[in-house]
């Protein structure tokens, strides 16, 4: 019989104490980024390297065998190819009765993999998450903790994988899913909201995000003819004979299912990748734009640098005017970020939301005239998405944007044209334009 999962949580500052009892199946915990979700995960796992400053966990009753799904899907992948990645967890378990049968079942659950010798880095963010979910649930455990581990999936694929979890493990494992997307609450057998002042159970998961966004028409144009791209170690074409032509966009959205080629298309646009065949042209007022890209994994942009070191590099390379540093610090303050406290930190020392907000604000004041944001809402709660919306509105006063996201609601509220990689069509969205022609 699977042990129940229970603990006491005490918010000393607010004198709030609750006894939390969790049944088998899916228990969803929503919280804005910075509310303490990852700290709660680490407290439940007895990870003393990440202590919480806001609450104390005591009187835990948890299973001995707990599996964690990481917030950053790259952090969970340790092997040089996909076959060794899915084999590793099975081979490390001493009680496996039929390794081949279990391995075949995992492979069957990952139909998007066409070559098991591929490096995991060639997967999209969402495909990495699916890989991690399958391998985590396939290990011997009585409980699984998911730290924002489904946030790169679009709504239909997420729904499919929630059904997969419920059907296969809903009556066998206690699952704690910590998420920054309030719409995920609808999936929970139990629903919880975590804030800095408490953890409370709710019955109604209705929350609404209201944006007040509009911008002027732009000068961004893209033309792709017979565009083809595939990775060298994959038989499948990520982009297959794509023909697209658009013009006069200021804020372009790119949507589509996980693995449909959204991020690859951006890498082709920015010449980070070269097409296998065909041509692609990106122009801004008939000239090549000066482009900055914020990757869906923001630590890739920072690398080993602190935030201050990155800012200084931009200043040294004439990409950021040093006279705007005071304005930058003031703008951070308006979003409740203290530059003195974060400037010497690296990406892994800060929440993903804080890193994203700081980097987007840096780019908003930079000398780039086209900013590309890949999955900018990842890890952001609905209040933080409203703050991001305000930043984007200020960017679009004199710059252009490309937003890549599975968050279709956010895209529809901020983009005047949208490339849908599922239907291979361009959608015009004049509702966000203040001067539509």
Distance between the termini: 66 Å
Spatial strand sequence of the major β-sheet: 5-6-7-3-8-9
Strand content: 15-25%
Largest sheet composition: 6 strands, mixed
Structural class: alpha/beta
Overall pLDDT confidence: 87
Number of strands: 18
How big is the Rg? 22 Å
Residue stretches low in confidence (pLDDT < 50, at least 5 long) are none
Shape assignment: globular
| Portion of residues within helices | 25-40%
Give the number of helices. Answer: 14
Summarize the structure.
This protein has 437 residues and is α/β, with parallel strands linked by helices. It has 14 helices and 18 strands.
Q: In words, what does this structure look like?
A:
The chain is built from 14 helices and 18 strands. α3 crosses α4. The longest helix is centred in the middle third of the chain and has 15 residues, at 155-169. 30% of the residues lie in helices and 25% in strands. The chain has a six-stranded mixed sheet with strand order 5-6-7-3-8-9, sandwiched between helices. By secondary structure, it is α/β, with parallel strands linked by helices.
Any chance you could write out the topology, listing elements then pairs?
Layout: E1 5-11, E2 16-22, E3 25-30, H1 37-44, E4 56-61, E5 66-69, H2 73-76, H3 82-91, H4 99-108, H5 125-138, E6 143-147, H6 155-169, E7 174-179, E8 190-195, E9 198-202, E10 220-229, E11 239-249, E12 251-255, H7 262-269, E13 277-284, E14 291-294, H8 299-302, H9 307-316, H10 325-334, H11 339-342, H12 352-364, E15 370-374, H13 382-395, E16 400-404, H14 408-412, E17 417-420, E18 425-428
Parallel strand pairs: 3-7, 3-8, 5-6, 6-7, 12-16, 12-17, 14-15, 15-16
Antiparallel strand pairs: 1-2, 1-4, 8-9, 10-11, 10-13, 17-18
